[in-house]
Specification:
single chain; 291 residues; alpha+beta; 5-stranded antiparallel β-sheet; 4-stranded antiparallel β-sheet; 14 strands; 25% strand
Length: 291
């Protein structure tokens, strides 16, 4: 299939882009890398009246550090994120997660902002940014606002973005726990993940966990923050018994759907395995060991 007919606009700056969004409302759709949206257009799952191509909006590109925050422009490609020196040094979780996204060719086109705004609950970057307790900067003709990523995802492929708004930046605190891990299972490398787990742990010299963030993907309509499991881990060392109990608690709220790729029971079992692997690797890294 091919897309339905649409008008095409290519603004040269952010001001023009938000004016177009304000003008067209729900009929206007942003296109950047097109990694997810082009297939949706071709299958006519979406038939917008107007496409707004933001690839020339240079304000949305690049990565910088300011005031203890890593600020990632929405048009930064997934490959740029994966290779950026500051990301590799300060936020290696993003590097590890990005390597699971498709293949190099798709990462050269797919954008960070597009992945987050698309809000696929099994996608690598939404999980990782949630684990990193990030903030999302959103811009419209009325100005900019910042929201916690904890509130950003509403339901499947749906965020709090209004039709006249655009995601412009993602802010990640520079200070992050030393222990990190991202694990996912897919049928083949580069395929969509059946399930995934992202984990951040801060571990003191005695092996006691004092910070924990655990996020599961592919098990709910949005990336699942395993808050009960996170709370359970605080003040504990990761013994085998504690590890098993944490995995049990984390997976307790998971409610994956069955589809042609996997049954619900299979996804739940995979989630336990991926969560266990991520926790153990993050803990070892937090102790200064490789996972």
């Amino acid at each position: 299939m091919k897309p339905a007919t649409f008008d095409y606009h290519c603004p040269s700056n952010l001001e023009e882009a938000v004016k177009l969004l304000n003008e067209f409302g729900s009929e206007g759709k942003i296109i950047a890398g097109g990694q997810s949206f082009i297939p949706i257009l071709n299958m006519r799952m979406s038939e917008p009246g107007c496409l707004i191509d933001i690839n020339q909006v240079t304000e949305l590109k690049g990565i910088r550090i300011e005031d203890g925050v890593v600020k990632i422009g929405a048009l930064t490609t997934q490959r740029e994120l994966e290779q950026h020196e500051d990301i590799r040094k300060h936020i290696p979780l993003l590097v590890e997660a990005a390597q699971y996204i498709g293949h190099v060719q798709t990462r050269n086109r797919g954008t960070v902002g597009g992945s987050v705004a698309h809000a696929d609950p099994s996608a690598e970057l939404p999980l990782s940014f949630l684990a990193l307790d990030s903030e999302i900067v959103i811009t419209s003709a009325d100005g900019s606002r910042t929201t916690s990523i904890n509130d950003f995802f509403i339901t499947y492929l749906t965020t709090e973005l209004m039709p006249e708004e655009i995601l412009t930046e993602i802010h990640v605190p520079l200070s992050q726990p030393a222990g990190y891990a991202f694990e996912e299972f897919s049928r083949r490398h580069g395929d969509f993940a059946l399930v995934a787990a992202a984990c951040l742990l801060s571990v003191d010299d005695a092996g006691i966990i004092d910070q924990a963030r655990i996020v599961l993907g592919g098990v709910d309509a949005v990336p699942l923050l395993a808050e009960d499991a996170m709370e359970y881990l605080i003040g504990k060392t990761l013994t085998e018994d504690i590890l098993e109990k944490t995995v049990e608690i984390a997976v307790n709220d998971a409610d994956p759907d069955a589809d042609l790729h996997a049954s619900k029971e299979y996804r739940l079992q995979l989630t336990k395995v991926m969560t266990r692997k991520a926790l153990l690797k993050a803990y070892n890294r937090g102790l200064g060991k490789e996972g």
